[in-house]
Amino acid sequence: MILSSTAGHKQSLYRKVKLLNQVRLLRVQLCHMKNMFKTCRLAKELLDSFDTVPGHLTEDLHLYSLNDLTATRKGELGPRLAELTRAGAAHVERCMLCQAKGFICEFCQNEDDIIFPFELHKCRTCEECKACYHKACFKSGSCPRCERLQARREALARQSLESYLSDYEEEPAEALALKAAVLEAT
């Protein structure tokens, strides 16, 4: 089995070869699903079905064997991956454990529409923190979770600095008190 990475040429190659781009999108979805199913005790059988395709198809998004490229060209690989994607989506829809791993969009706060990273048609994932938002709601460069985490880091840094400075200020006073106690005792 010869494997080839498309990482260096990916954008232009995927733009030119529509079937390959469709396979890539399915692989992205399967990668997200597989990561979710690894932590779901009810998805053992489904994970076994994911193992019917070569591991690199669901783990390394830009790695293809010659067989993968041939099967893509013949129109065979896409339908196999689409079937796994449908099975995965059906599991998530009916599994309480997987539903609990979904996201509520922090922009619109719609609790009736739980979103998942594999829902590429309606979900946008923050590159930094991996939180999910509706594509329509996401504002470029403005991730609420990243902003919240940054504010928390800054507050902790300020608190740590203030604590350090107060410890430093207390040392001379403690030294003076100890010196006075020693002088008084003599």
UniProtKB/TrEMBL annotation:
One of its GO terms (cellular component) is late endosome. Residues 1-153 form the Rubicon Homology domain. It comes from the Eukaryota. GO terms for molecular function: phosphatidylinositol phosphate binding. InterPro entries: Autophagy_HostDef_Reg (IPR052428), RH_dom (IPR025258). Signal peptide: none annotated. GO terms for biological process: negative regulation of autophagosome maturation; negative regulation of endocytosis. PANTHER family: PHOX (PX) DOMAIN-CONTAINING PROTEIN, RUN DOMAIN BECLIN-1-INTERACTING AND CYSTEINE-RICH DOMAIN-CONTAINING PROTEIN. This is Rubicon Homology domain-containing protein. It comes from Pongo abelii.
